[in-house]
Structure formats: C-alpha cells, structure tokens
Amino acid sequence: MTTHLRGPVTIERIVELDDWPFDVREMFPAHPGAGRISLAIATHLVRTPDRTVLVDAGNGDGRHRPGLPAHHLLDAGYAARLAERVAPEEIDVVVCSHLHPDHCGGLTTGDGRPAFPRARHLVAWAELAWLGAVHRSAPRAGAAEGLARTWCDSVAPVLDAGLVEPVDGDDVDLGHGVWVRTAPGHTPGHLVVEIGPPGAPEAVISGDVLHHPLQFDDLALAQAGDADPAGAARTRHDLCERLARSGGLLLPSHFGPGHVHRASRGFGYRPVGC
Ligand SMILES: [Zn+2]
C-alpha cells in the first residue's frame, strides 16, 4: 500500500509477515480474555523529494534466536520484497524505532554486513545503551541471550561501519515535514516518525507504541515487552489524542493502518484497506 500525503511525501508499507500468532495473554498479560491473536510485521518506506527513508528493517530471515522462539529462523523473504521497491544502496536514512529483534534484525545481511551501506542509521542513545548493556552482561539463555545475539549480528556491524547516528532525545528534522520524535515507554528510547505540521500529524509511523487494536479499548493495557508500562500508556494516550485531533493516519508495525477517533470510552480505530 502506498499512501500519498498532501505534500510531496509518500509512504509505502512493506509487510514482512502478515500472520504472526500469539496467545493473547502472552502478548498482554493483564488482558481478561483468552485465545489467539495475530500480529503482522511491517516496515515503512518514506520518500521525500530528496531522501528515501526506511523506518525499521524487520526481523530478517534465518536469524538464530533460540531464546526468542517467535523470532527464531523466520523465512519470510523481507529483504527481497523490499528490494522490489528500492535498492538497498538507494536508502539514505534508516530510522530504528527501537532495537527489539523484529525491528532491527534486517539491518544486516545474512553474512553479517550492513544491509543499507549508504544510509545514516538513526537510533536513540537510550536504545544503544540498553541493548549494549544486555550484551555485556553475557546472558547464556532465554530472551536476554536472544537480545545479546541481536546486538552482535544486527546492531554491532552497523555501529562498526560508522553508520549509526545516535539520537539524544531531540526531534530530528528530515525535511518536507518528516520528523523523528521520541515516544518512550515500550523501550527507553523508542522513536516514531511523524509527517505533517507539529502537533497535527498527517501520518505517524508508530513502531510499537501500540501492538494490536484491542489496546484502543484500554490504553493502559501493557504489552509484555513494555519496559515502562506507565510511560508506554502515557505515550499511547498522547499519540491517540494527537491523531484523533488531526485525523491523521496511524501506521503501526504490527497491525494495519487506520484512523483513530474518540469513542465513548477513550478511543476507537477504523482500519483502512491495506
Ligand atoms: Zn515489535
């Protein structure tokens, strides 16, 4: 799906996986229901008159993550699908919403080289500090071991190549109304990309601020991986307020695009075709 905004900017949604199943309580431990839910993994390509920007890089194929079974040895063909839209060396900027493996695994090729060799990679300092510390703690099993592997095979090669430009909390202006802004809570340095006037976005590429539309019923519903559940809930609320006011498009990583509106209890969500 390609979204054309009022100005010269377009956004393409590139799906890595369209059915990534989870038990609802595995994803949202406090959810009152039971059963299975399905997530997607999607990244976004933003084209302005002078820059091609990739927001997140997906999980990547063949990533060895035995401690993180949902991320282990996926084979979804994302890199080839992206290459149908844009050559990797044509990407000028990569924005990493955060450094969980389903967002940064695709930063490198299968043989460990940076996948986007010309791009400046915008990553929050707080993310680099957090994942670097996990790696240095040398975990030997479980999720932490999977995260340490993510540092080694997906982040360190890009850092070593001098391609990472850390973001320290200030907004980053990519031109033509495209801004990188901090949206902490799910992880310490989570970033979103907003397109449009400040405070009244036409579109927000929101990473993991929200994981599934059922969170609109209760914006306080924490996802299992939220590092700071109260902060994540505040960020979800701020984002929904802004989008309900502006009528802008929400483009999340794990479910389809749509519009946020005020509802009797908080907010509702109207998906658009994808
Ligand atoms: Zn994610």
From TrEMBL:
Gene3D superfamilies, A to Z: Ribonuclease Z/Hydroxyacylglutathione hydrolase-like
UniProt keyword NAD present: no
Superkingdom per UniProt: Bacteria
CDD domains: metallo-hydrolase-like_MBL-fold (cd16277)
Keywords: Hydrolase, Metal-binding, Zinc
PANTHER family (UniProt xref): QUORUM-QUENCHING LACTONASE YTNP-RELATED, QUORUM-QUENCHING LACTONASE YTNP-RELATED-RELATED
Protein name: MBL fold metallo-hydrolase
